[in-house]
Amino acid sequence: MDYIVNKLLILPGILLGLSIHEFSHGYAALKMGDDTALMQGRLTLNPIKHIDPMGFICLLLFGFGWAKPVMINSRNFKNPRRDDAIVSIAGPASNLLTAVLFVIFMKLADTYMPYNALGQIIWEVLRNTVVINLVLMVFNLIPIPPLDGHHILGSIGGAKVWNFYYKYYDHLRFAMLLLIVFNGVGLIISPIINFIYSLLITLVF
Predict the structure, then answer these.
(1) Which of 74, 166, 184, 186 could form a disulfide with 179 if both were Cys (CB 3.0 to 4.6 A apart)?
(2) Pairwise CA distance, residues 44 & 41, whole Å
(3) Which residues contact 34 (CB under 8 A, 6 or more apart)?
C-alpha cells in the first residue's frame, strides 16, 4: 500500500516534468525555424501527447526515464549546428527552471500551509516534483543516445562525434538500458542531483 501511495505522490511531478521537457524542445525548435512539433500537435503540456510507455515505466520503477522525443527537422534551422544544440538544451533547462519554481512553492507551503495530513501530501508532491525535474535534467544531459546530451555533444564536436554515434548508436542505447535496469545510472547521477537539490533548498530556505 505504501508503495502505491509513494508512486501516486511522484506521478504529478513525472507528468509535469515530461510534458514541460518535450514542450520546451518543440517551442525552441519553432523559434529556430522548425514547425514540425507544432504540426504534429506536440506544442502542448498535455502529458498524453508526450509519454513514451517504456520511458514512463522506467521512471516509475527505477527513477530514470524519458518521454516520446519531439521530432525535429534540422534542415529548417538557419544555423543547424547551433540551433540543434539550443533545442537540445531547452528540455533540461526547462526542468531546472521548473525545479527552482517548485522549491519556491515549497517555501511558500512551509510558511503558510497548516501542518496537517493534507499539508503533508501537498508538501510531498511539491518536493517530488522538484526531485523528478532534477532527475530529468541531469539524466537527459548524459551524452548517450537517445538523450539530449548526445545531441549537445554532437553539435559541439561536429562530424567526428556524429559519426561515432551513428556507428555505435544501437550499442550505446542498449548499454544505457542496462545501466538503468541495474541502477548504474543512479550511482552516477544521484550525487549530482542531491547536490543541486541541496543547493536550491539552501538558497531558497
Answers:
(1) 184
(2) 7
(3) 72, 73, 74, 76, 77, 87
The secondary structure element, H or E, covering residue 156 is helix 148-157
| Intervals of the chain under pLDDT 50 | none
Q: Report the alpha-carbon distance of residue 159 to residue 168 in Å, rounded.
A: 14
For 132-153, letters b (16+ CB in 10 Å) and e give bbbbbbbbbbbbbbebbbbbbb
Distances (CA, A) of 29 to 32, 47, 98: 5, 19, 20
- Cα separation, 7 vs 165, in Å, equals 35
Orientation of helix 184-204 relative to helix 117-140, angle to 10°: 120
**Alpha-carbon dihedral angle through residues 128, 52, 85, 162, given to the nearest 10 degrees:** 130
Q: Which residue has the cell 539530449?
A: 148
pLDDT tens per residue across span 4-56? 778 788 989 999 999 999 999 999 999 999 999 999 999 999 998 998 888 88
Would you state the pLDDT for residue 1? 64
Active site residues per annotation? 22
